[in-house]
């Protein structure tokens, strides 16, 4: 590559601070939305005493986790455009001019590495493809803090430059010989268009209205009984146990315990509710569920709605073979031990003989093939 071509490439208006500042602003918004919604999902699955998640509105988790994945997808073209706008500075000399400059370069290195790790491993997770040996949720959560910490350091160091770049008019004319390629505004519009196409092409997994135009959506409503299935009964190793005619649900409370056969559960008063399955991967699907309210089962066993319940599946050894249903959810009358889906008996891949379906919960906590409920 000749010296003159290298100079002309570095003088492109795409490398102007006005471009970098504007793309950086939207990238920062996307990162922040992704980080906050990711924390929400993490703390729902790993609750602490400082965090409580409500049972209503029933679609809240569907929205927050959809935003988590959509903002992550939007961040990919924004990050690539941001790096393109600043890459000539990597060739500036000297490499380090001051301690503050060293901090700036270090924050860019850490930010870029953490951001690419988060975004691309997140895409693999959406595709349920795990070409690594680490436990994705734990590592994804830890690196999220590293990424956001480096974002804050980078913004703090570059704040004067960011302010200057945002104040300048991106349409301001440049000398004809000073640049080639797209104008500043043209590069920005191309970036917004690319990010918008990426979102629309994938958002149908979360937004049903976009499913007919989201060609890259990874889930639809075409699964068994109209609801996608992430884990089948065969992969969970529960087919024989789930179909065993001797199966019975055990409900254990501090005041006593009861067992219910499937016929006895079906004979109890039933509740029907329209609730979504909202997966941590960002896809969601509404369905009509019918079953026995968990609160009614607690009453039948001598307890009361509002008790925390440990849900135990027939599955053995799976990461989500057990879950905890908080008291607020057991007190909600549409937290169900579901027996039917969309008017039909549960398919075995959806949890036959019964499963938990509670409002405003991640799909991984809507335990299938339930064997035992333990009230605490």
UniProtKB/TrEMBL annotation:
Domain of life (superkingdom): Bacteria
Example of a GO biological process term: respiratory electron transport chain
Entry keyword Ion transport: no
Pfam family, one: Oxidored_molyb
Domain Oxidoreductase molybdopterin-binding: 244-375
InterPro entries: Di-haem_cyt_TM, Mopterin_OxRdtase_euk, OxRdtase_Mopterin-bd_dom, OxRdtase_Mopterin-bd_sf
Record keyword Membrane present: yes
Positions in coiled-coil regions: none
Keywords linked to the UniProt accession: Membrane, Transmembrane, Transmembrane helix
Cellular component aspect of the GO annotation: membrane
Gene3D superfamilies (alphabetical): Oxidoreductase, molybdopterin-binding domain
Protein name: Molybdopterin-binding protein
């Amino acid at each position: 590559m000749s010296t003159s071509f290298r100079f002309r490439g570095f003088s492109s208006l795409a490398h102007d601070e006005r471009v970098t500042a504007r793309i950086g602003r939207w990238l920062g918004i996307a990162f922040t939305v992704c980080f906050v919604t990711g924390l929400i999902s993490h703390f729902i699955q790993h609750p602490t005493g400082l965090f409580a998640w409500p049972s209503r509105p029933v679609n809240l988790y569907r929205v927050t986790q959809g935003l988590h994945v959509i903002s992550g997808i939007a961040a990919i073209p924004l990050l690539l455009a941001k790096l393109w706008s600043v890459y000539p500075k990597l060739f500036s000399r000297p490499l380090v001019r001051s301690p503050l400059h060293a901090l700036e370069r270090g924050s860019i290195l850490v930010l870029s590495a953490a951001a690419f790790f988060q975004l691309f491993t997140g895409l693999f997770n959406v595709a349920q493809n795990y070409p690594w040996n680490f436990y994705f949720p734990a590592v994804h959560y830890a690196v999220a803090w590293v990424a956001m910490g480096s974002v804050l350091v980078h913004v703090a160091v570059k704040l004067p430059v960011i302010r200057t770049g945002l104040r300048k008019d991106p349409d301001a004319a440049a000398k004809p010989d000073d640049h080639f390629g797209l104008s500043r505004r043209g590069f920005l519009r191309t970036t917004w268009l690319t990010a918008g196409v990426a979102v629309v092409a994938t958002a149908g997994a979360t937004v049903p209205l976009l499913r007919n135009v989201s060609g890259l959506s990874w889930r639809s409503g075409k699964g068994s009984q109209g609801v996608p299935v992430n884990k089948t009964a065969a992969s969970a190793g529960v087919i024989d146990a789930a179909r065993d005619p001797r199966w019975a649900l055990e409900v254990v409370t501090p005041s006593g315990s009861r067992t219910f056969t499937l016929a006895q559960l079906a004979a109890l008063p039933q509740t029907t509710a329209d609730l979504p399955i909202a997966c941590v991967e960002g896809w969601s699907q509404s369905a009509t569920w019918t079953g026995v309210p968990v609160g009614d089962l607690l009453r039948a066993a001598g307890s009361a709605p509002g008790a925390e319940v440990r849900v135990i599946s027939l599955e053995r050894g799976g990461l989500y073979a057990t879950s905890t249903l908080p008291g607020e959810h057991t007190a909600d009358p549409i937290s169900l031990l579901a027996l039917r889906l969309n008017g039909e008996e549960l398919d075995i891949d959806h949890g036959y003989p019964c499963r938990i379906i509670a409002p405003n919960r991640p799909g991984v906590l809507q335990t299938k093939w339930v064997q035992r409920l333990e009230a605490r």
